[in-house]
Write a structure and sequence with these properties.
This protein is α+β, with helices and mostly antiparallel strands. The chain folds into two domains: 73-121 and 260-308, no CATH class; 132-255, Nucleotidyltransferase, domain 5, CATH 3.30.420. The protein is 36% helix and 14% strand. The strands form three sheets. It has a five-stranded mixed sheet with strand order 6-5-4-7-8, sandwiched between helices. A hairpin with a 5-residue loop joins strand 9 (299-300) and strand 10. Helix 1 crosses helix 2, helix 5 packs across helix 6 (205-214) and helix 7 (236-251) packs across helix 8 (258-273).
């Protein structure tokens, strides 16, 4: 698929493509789930793609119940934005999108946050069956309302992200955290990692204090002593993930609020988890976003901030 594909230029073809992707196993009503009495609404008085459910009597189109619902932006432009997001390794700015597809910056910014919501997923606990899970944390940007202190540790004034990497499945999951307290980090790990997993971390004391509560085993590497791996004991994979994440966040998304940081993290998680190493191409990534668009509609408040 390339940028001249008809699904990116023709809204009717775009709608048909979304119908094929969302309803690959058959049309169903997004209101009641009915599948047996779906009728296509014909005639000039009905908009293209309108269907009616014979069970609940409600009408719907393929966009109902998705991030595209009630959007005034043509669906072909939505699919183009989705493809660009899926194929840009370090992300794409809203300014670039608004210039590329002919929408306002405000619209482009909102579209991208909707797409990031479609990228978010719950892949269940990592390390099921005793697998290895690498865990690390990183700093990005500036924590709202916190001033840089000469006496505090280097990252105290920055926003914090904790990432788990599941070696068995080759997947990453990043969580925005408010602080690096043992209780905070323990809660994140216990919610996202199976109790039988083996935890691999650096020498940070928080991991040592939580290990017995959240994991069946714990091995560390001592980075401060110049140690970065002993066979399978290392955190090199999650650190490699951070190298891509930081290049994107610093080079493309230079200004981002903490209230949206979890969506940016989900974007980089998604592309990493659907990377080419898994024989997944740009089109397959974009289609995965379309399938994840259901049930994740976002709306504007009067302040124009995006809310879930």
């Amino acid at each position: 698929m390339n940028l001249t594909d008809p699904i990116f230029t023709d809204k009717t073809i775009a709608r048909e493509y979304l119908e094929h992707t969302r309803w690959a196993d058959g049309v169903y009503c997004p209101h009641c789930g009915g599948v047996d009495r779906i009728k296509k609404m014909e005639g000039k008085s009905h908009r293209p793609g309108l269907l009616q459910c014979g069970d609940c009597r409600k009408q719907f189109t393929v966009t109902v119940g998705t991030i595209f619902e009630r959007s005034k932006v043509p669906l072909n432009k939505w699919l183009l934005a989705t493809f660009l997001m899926a194929s840009s390794k370090k992300g794409i700015s809203a300014h670039q999108l608004h210039r590329s597809i002919g929408v306002t910056y405000k619209t482009a910014w909102f579209m991208f946050h909707r797409i990031r919501e479609a990228m978010r997923s719950d892949d269940g606990p990592f390390g099921v069956g005793g697998g290895h899970v690498e865990i690390d944390e990183t700093y990005i940007g500036k924590e709202p309302g916190v001033k840089k202190s000469k006496t505090a540790r280097g990252g105290a004034h920055k926003m914090k992200i904790m990432t788990l990497f599941n070696r068995n499945r080759g997947m990453a999951k990043s969580v925005v955290i408010d602080d690096l307290r043992v209780s905070t980090m323990t809660k994140v790990v216990s919610e996202n990692m199976a109790r039988e997993a083996k935890m691999l971390t650096d020498e940070a004391s928080q991991y040592k204090l939580m290990a017995d509560k959240v994991a069946a085993g714990h091995d560390t590497v001592n980075h401060s002593a110049g140690e970065y791996g002993r066979g399978e004991i290392h955190t090199n994979t999650v650190e490699g993930f951070y190298s891509i994440f930081k290049r994107g966040m610093k080079g493309v998304y230079q200004h981002r609020g903490k209230q949206h940081l979890h969506r940016y993290a989900a974007e980089f998680d998604f592309r990493y988890n659907h990377r080419a190493a898994k024989e997944i191409d740009d089109t397959m990534r974009a289609n995965a976003i379309l399938r994840g668009a259901e049930g994740k509609r976002l709306t504007y408040r009067r302040t124009n901030s995006v809310v879930a």
